[in-house]
Amino acid sequence: QVQLVESGGGLVQPGGSLRLSCAASGSIFSINRMGWYRQAPGKQRELVAAITSGGSTNYADSVKGRFTISRDNAKNTVYLQMNSLKPEDTAVYHCNADLYSGYVRRDYWGKGTLVTVSS
User: What's the 3-state SS for 43-86?
Assistant: First the structure.
């Protein structure tokens, strides 16, 4: 059994900051890519940022320069530092991990954490 649990969401004013965390636990052999996706009401889920086990990152154009993804491999945890938040960043943010549980490689998803940017 593998679980991904997100935390750190909440209500923040425009221009503010939040830091999301996602911890992976369970029967994990190794984790390849970890990422954050978001889904706003009425919209499709989209990639926000991703990071490989070696530390290479990629970001959606809409968050470049404002969001930073990082990971602690020893803790199987990925973070998303979000600065200069805008109302359009409001969404449920989901953690994703491409990992090996034993010899089986698959994607796992967290249940999500709600980020609301509003004055």
Answer: CCCEEEEEECCCCCEEECHHHCCCEEEEEEHHHCEEEEEECCCC
